[in-house]
Design goal:
Blueprint: E1 21-26, E2 30-36, E3 43-50, H1 60-71, E4 76-81, H2 91-107, E5 112-116, H3 120-130, H4 139-163
Parallel strand pairs: 1-4, 4-5
Antiparallel strand pairs: 1-2, 2-3
């Protein structure tokens, strides 16, 4: 599981059932945060957390996200994994992967998953621009919108997976929906 080139996770595998999810868009300067409703249907923006220069488990950015996870009683955290269009990893993917590992240690036993997030920041910026929000000074909003896009993509895929009977068998376990 700790393999450096591990691909994105898929919803439905080890699904924790009903509960809020937290979506994270890790950037080099800011971290966009989104949350879902308890039924896992809709993602909404939460806040933008400044990236800390500290890299330990008690770095302010990791602490703040862990506090959000606790505050929202999250059952799962979804971190965007930015890959190139060809599915390759660059510097941004390494930053997100390292951040996810640090967060995983802090919020354990809550699962931290990596979700494919190609183009979410670009898509979020375009959607905001088309809705009349100017790009200047709107970076924090774009980061939150990217986190919403990452989480919404996960929720939509999770919904399809759970509604398809979830070939992994989790949907049949009575405690999965509790």
């Amino acid at each position: 599981m700790g393999h450096a080139e591990q691909g994105p996770d898929r919803p439905g595998v080890d699904d924790p059932g009903r509960g809020r999810r937290i979506g994270i868009d890790v950037g080099s300067v800011r971290i966009g945060v989104a949350s879902s409703d308890p039924d896992g249907i809709l993602a909404t923006p939460v806040e933008t957390v400044p990236r800390s220069k500290e890299r330990g488990p008690d770095a302010p950015d990791i602490r703040r996200i862990a506090d959000i996870v606790e505050e929202y009683e999250a059952v799962e955290v979804i971190v965007g994994l930015p890959q190139t269009l060809r599915g390759e990893r660059g510097k941004a993917a390494s930053i997100a992967t390292v951040f996810a590992k640090r967060l995983r240690r802090k919020v354990d036993p809550i699962p931290v998953r990596m979700a494919d997030e190609r183009l979410t920041t670009v898509t979020a910026a375009r959607a905001l621009r088309e809705s009349g929000v100017s790009a200047r000074g709107q970076r924090p909003v774009i980061d939150q919108a990217a986190a919403v896009a990452i989480l919404q993509g996960w929720l939509d895929e999770r919904s399809r997976s759970v509604n398809a009977g979830d070939s992994g068998g989790d949907a049949q376990r009575p405690e999965a929906g509790q």
